[in-house]
Write a structure and sequence with these properties.
The complex is a heterodimer. Chain A is mainly alpha-helical. Chain A has ten helices and no strands.
C-alpha cells in the first residue's frame, strides 16, 4: 500500500516540478504542495479497500465466531473502522516524513498534526463505506468493482494534484461535495495563503461527520447481514 | 434442568429451503450428545440457532435455561462454539488467537494468560504457541479451534463437525482429545457429525436427523443393535414390477425390505445364506435381476433404516 505513494512523492513531484510556475499553488515547491495531497490519497485509497478484509473474515467464519461471543454487535463493525483510521494515520505519517525529507515544510508541527488527523478521518470514513459495501455484497468482485469505480474520479475531482484555481470551474464546484477534497483542504490549510483555522476546523468537522455517517451505514449493513443468517 | 432443550424448531431459508421441520430434543447437564445425519439434514442450522447466530421461524430453544431469542447475551456467555469453518486468524499465533477470544469473552488479561497456558498444554499445542497458525497442520488447527471455544470455561460446548476434513490419523487423535475433555471438564457437549463411528466413540446419546427433524434417538449401542445383520442390495432388471418387494419380504431371515426405483434393499441376518434364497425366490416369481451386492451395516444403513431414504438424498435437497 505504501509503494505507490512513494512513487508519487519521489517521481511525480520531480516530473511536474515546474508546474508551480503557474500561479495558485501558494508555494514554489511542488513537493510542499503535493505531500499533504499524497497523504490524503493514500489514506482514502487504503480506507476504500478495507472491506476486502471483512469479506475474507466473512468467508473464513471469523465474523460468526465473534457473533457467538458476548462482544457488542456494534463493536464488531466499528472496531474495523477505527483500525482503518489508525492505519491511515500511520500511513499519513510515513508519507509526511518522506515529504519532509524531500524538502516539504507544510506549516510546521501544527500543520503536520492537521495532516495526520485529516488522513485518519478520511481513512476511517472510506473504511466505513467500504465495510458497508462488503457486508451488502459479500463478494470480492463487487468490492473490487466499487473501490475501482470510486477511486480515480474522487482523486480527479479534488485538488490533490493541482492548484484549485487551475481546475475547470464545473469540476471545482463538483469537488465541494467530495469528502476527499475536504480532507485535502484541511491538510493543506497551512500551504494555501489566506486559509484560516476556522476553515480548517470546518473541514475537519465535516470529515468527522462523514466518518460517523459511514460508520452508521456499515452498522446498518451489518444488521442486514445478521438477519440473513 | 436440561442443559439444552429444543422444542419444535422450524426454519425456512429465504430461498425456500426448509432446513428445520419440528426439530425436538433435550440434553441433560453433563452429557455428550451427538446429532447425526448427512449434510443438509439441519444439524448446522440447529447449532446456529442454539448459539444465537440464526433466528428460528417457530419453536423454542433454551441453553442452561436461557431462551436463545429473548436472552441471547446470557446464552453467549454460557456457551463455547466451534464452527465448521474454523474462523481462526491464520496470520496470528496460536496464543494470540486464544488471547483475542478470551478478551472477546470479556475475560481479564491475567486470567486469559493462565487459561491459555492450560489449554495449550491440554491440546498439545504448547510448542506451537508462538508459531503462526498458517504453519499449523490440519489437526493442530482444529485443536486450536476447540481450545478457543473453551477459553471462558463455557458450560455447554457446541462442536459443529469437529473432524470433517481431517485425515484419519488426526481424526483419531481428535477423538482422544475430545473424550479426555468430556471426562475432565464436566461439560455438556453437543456435537454434530456425519460419521457414525464418531458419534459411537464420543456420544453417550445420539439423535439421527433427517430433513429437519429427529427420526430416532438413543444410545449408540441400542441404535446399532437394531441394525444387526447385513444389507443385500438387488438391482432389478428393467421389467421389474411391484411384486419383488412382496416376494422378498415373505422369505425367512429377511427382516426389512425397501425399494427405491429399480433397487431393492433387504436387511438380513446372514448375507451369504440369504442371497441364494432371495435370488431363487425372485427367479421363481419371474423377476429379472441385474446385480446383487452384500454389505455390512454403515451409516447409510442406519439412515436408510430410519428414514426410508438413501443417505445422499438429503444432500440434494439440502443446503
Amino acid at each position: 500500500m505504501l509503494v505507490q505513494p512513494m512513487f508519487w512523492l519521489l517521481l511525480y513531484s520531480q516530473l511536474f516540478r515546474r508546474i508551480t510556475d503557474l500561479h495558485g499553488f501558494g508555494t514554489t515547491s511542488y513537493v510542499d504542495y503535493l505531500t499533504p495531497g499524497i497523504a490524503i490519497m493514500t489514506a482514502f485509497f487504503s480506507g476504500s479497500w478495507a472491506g476486502m478484509g471483512t469479506i475474507e473474515d466473512l468467508d473464513r467464519g471469523v465474523v460468526e465466531r465473534f457473533l457467538a461471543t458476548p462482544a457488542h454487535r456494534v463493536a464488531i463493525v466499528s472496531a474495523r473502522i477505527v483500525q482503518s483510521g489508525v492505519v491511515a494515520t500511520l500511513q499519513g505519517l510515513l508519507v509526511l516524513l518522506v515529504g519532509l525529507a524531500l524538502g516539504a515544510r507544510n506549516g510546521g508541527p501544527l500543520g503536520w498534526i492537521v495532516i495526520l488527523v485529516a488522513s485518519g478521518l478520511i481513512g476511517a470514513g472510506f473504511a466505513g463505506f467500504s465495510n458497508g459495501i462488503a457486508l451488502l455484497t459479500r463478494r470480492e468482485e463487487s468490492m473490487i468493482a466499487v473501490a475501482n469505480f470510486i477511486g480515480l474520479p474522487l482523486l480527479f475531482f479534488s485538488s490533490i494534484l493541482i492548484a484549485r484555481t487551475l481546475i475547470p470551474h464545473w469540476m471545482r464546484v463538483a469537488s465541494l461535495a467530495n469528502p476527499v477534497e475536504w480532507a485535502v483542504r484541511a491538510a493543506r490549510g497551512h500551504v494555501i495563503p489566506g486559509t484560516g483555522w476556522g476553515q480548517i476546523a470546518l473541514y475537519l468537522v465535516l470529515l468527522a461527520a462523514f466518518s460517523v455517517g459511514t460508520t452508521v451505514f456499515a452498522t446498518m449493513c451489518f444488521g442486514a447481514y445478521r438477519r440473513t443468517l | 434442568m436440561d442443559a439444552v432443550a429444543v422444542e419444535a424448531l422450524e426454519k425456512t431459508y429465504p430461498k425456500g429451503v426448509r432446513a428445520l421441520d419440528g426439530m425436538t430434543f433435550a440434553i441433560p447437564e453433563g452429557q455428550v450428545f451427538g446429532l447425526l445425519g448427512p449434510n443438509g439434514a439441519g444439524k448446522s442450522t440447529t447449532v446456529r440457532i442454539l448459539v444465537t447466530l440464526t433466528r428460528p421461524d417457530a419453536g423454542s430453544a433454551t441453553v442452561m435455561g436461557h431462551d436463545v431469542r429473548r436472552e441471547p447475551a446470557a446464552v453467549r456467555r454460557t456457551i463455547g462454539y466451534v464452527p465448521q469453518a474454523s474462523g481462526v486468524d491464520r496470520e496470528a499465533t496460536g496464543r494470540e488467537n486464544l488471547q483475542l477470544q478470551g478478551r472477546l469473552q470479556g475475560m481479564r488479561s491475567i486470567e486469559v494468560e493462565r487459561r491459555a497456558d492450560e489449554l495449550l498444554e491440554l491440546f498439545s499445542l504448547a510448542e506451537k504457541q508462538s508459531a503462526l497458525v498458517r504453519t499449523f497442520s490440519g489437526g493442530q488447527k482444529r485443536r486450536l479451534d476447540v481450545a478457543m471455544g473453551l477459553m471462558h470455561r463455557p458450560q455447554v460446548l457446541f462442536l459443529d463437525e469437529p473432524t470433517t476434513g481431517l485425515d484419519p490419523e488426526a481424526r483419531t487423535a481428535m477423538w482422544d482429545e475430545l473424550a479426555r475433555l468430556a471426562a475432565a471438564e464436566k461439560l455438556t457437549i453437543l456435537l454434530t457429525t456425519h460419521y457414525l463411528e464418531e458419534a459411537d466413540r464420543l456420544a453417550e446419546r445420539v439423535a439421527i436427523v433427517s430433513r429437519g427433524k429427529v427420526v430416532a434417538a438413543g444410545e449408540p449401542d441400542a441404535l446399532k443393535r437394531e441394525l444387526r445383520g447385513e444389507l443385500v442390495t438387488v438391482d432389478l432388471g428393467s421389467s421389474a414390477d411391484g411384486r419383488a418387494s412382496a416376494v422378498v419380504d415373505a422369505l425367512d431371515g429377511v427382516n426389512d425390505v425397501l425399494t427405491e426405483g429399480q433397487r431393492l434393499f433387504a436387511r438380513v441376518d446372514r448375507g451369504a445364506e440369504a442371497v441364494p434364497t432371495i435370488l431363487g425366490a425372485l427367479d421363481a416369481a419371474d423377476v429379472e435381476v441385474a446385480a446383487v451386492t452384500v454389505s455390512r451395516p454403515s451409516l447409510d444403513d442406519v439412515y436408510l433404516h430410519y428414514t426410508g431414504r438413501e443417505f445422499r438424498s438429503d444432500d440434494e435437497a439440502g443446503t
